[in-house]
Amino acid sequence: MTFIVALKKTPHGLLVVVTDKNAIGCVFKEKGLQLDLSKEFYKGEEMSKEETIELINKARHLHLTGGKAVDLGVEIGLVHPSRILHVGKMVHAEVMVES
After folding, report:
1. Which has the closest alpha carbon to 52: 30, 31, 71?
2. For the chain, how many structural domains are there in total?
3. CATH of residue 66
């Protein structure tokens, strides 16, 4: 399993953006919400599950987009299923990691 992972340095710490590979370039809309996965924000490097988890463990903030990415967040205990956002046929979760 691989993901597209982008790293963003912010004034508040490292933001790790994890996206399902097949979702990059797509746009999802529903009820005034939009996920535009064609934007530069989501573009990154392809990484294995292990590499992705290693970076997640260094993150202050996470953006997880796509079923596999969000499932990974649930699997490692950072995303509660009730906090998953559905936009069209896409799922998304954002996490602020306690320091």
Report:
1. 71
2. 1
3. 3.30.1860.10
Q: Distance between CA atoms of 60 and 74, rounded to whole angstroms?
A: 17
Contact criterion met (CB below 8 Å) for 93 and 84: yes
Q: What is the pLDDT of residues 68-83, one digit of tens each?
A: 999 999 999 999 999 9
What value does the mean pLDDT take over residues 31-49?
95
Q: Residue 91 to residues 7, 14, 68, 82, 99: CA-CA distances in angstroms?
A: 20, 22, 9, 12, 26
DSSP-derived 3-state class of residue 80: coil
The encoded tokens of residue 97 equal 């990691």
